[in-house]
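Chapter review: from sequence to fold.
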Amino acid sequence: MQGGERYNSISDYLKKEFGNKTVKLSIDAGFTCPNRDGTAGFGGCAFCSEGGSGELASHVSAADEDYSSSITEQIGRLSEKWPDAVYLAYFQSFTNTYAPVSVLRSRYYAALDDPRISGIAIATRPDCLGDEVLDLLEEINRDHFMWVELGLQSVHDETLKAMNTCYTYEVYEKAVDELISRGIRVVTHLILGLPGETEEMMLESVRSVCSRKIFGMKLHLMNIVKTSPLYRMMPDYIPFESIEDYVDLVVRCLEIIPPEVTIHRLTGDVPRKILVSPEWSYRKRTILNLINSELKKRDTRQGAAL
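The token string follows.
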């Protein structure tokens, strides 16, 4: 376990990989989603915000694809705290493989060609990885540090249908197998606290995802936000009654994740102005401190239950 921590944090992994603190620069490159434009569905996933979960990303005009100003602005804010940091371009908002390959190529390389950028992370849906897209990702992966994030959320198809994701677990399985076969790092995104799911269902999602050789995992606290369809559907829904309930579940999830899997997230980032519940969700540092304290209290760690 790196850094003496009780879980394999991506920050420790990247510091070992690049030799310095490594920071993701969030970029909104102007993509949309097949679940919004009618290709797969309408309205987007029920849990997704109006901004495609990219409210914290810096917008880059899709017309000029000029990333330099966004990169400069973000580095300017971060350089005082981390003067020697390494930077990755993080394509975060909406579905970042949902465009013609020629467009994807120009936007990815617009970031990678910036000498201040040392790698790339691409967030997408499992149903937006056709052969040409996979070929492009494989090409980039040969010469650049890269991972692809797949928004799965749950392995339970009844949950995915209820949340209007318009894809199934089988689609995810095919996507992750294709990426891994090409040597591409895969980070899987799961949401804890989706409506209708028991704790055992959530733990089953973790176990199922870890049955493949993924590079990393994101565990995201289910946040109800004002701009999501889920808020209109279930305005009074509370995913977890308390921070302690959430912390307990996260600790049990970590215990069944293989030690080599990098942990990219254990809670969630949502602007407080659009957060509805859990009302304590914005206290990210408190949640992480409680998780670390509980791991220490139980004298347990990532992979301990395997």
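Two observations follow directly from the output. The domain at 2-297 is CATH 3.80.30.30 (pyruvate-formate lyase- activating enzyme). Strands lie at 22-28, 58-59, 86-91, 117-124, 145-153, 185-192, 216-221, 224-225, 262-265, 275-277.
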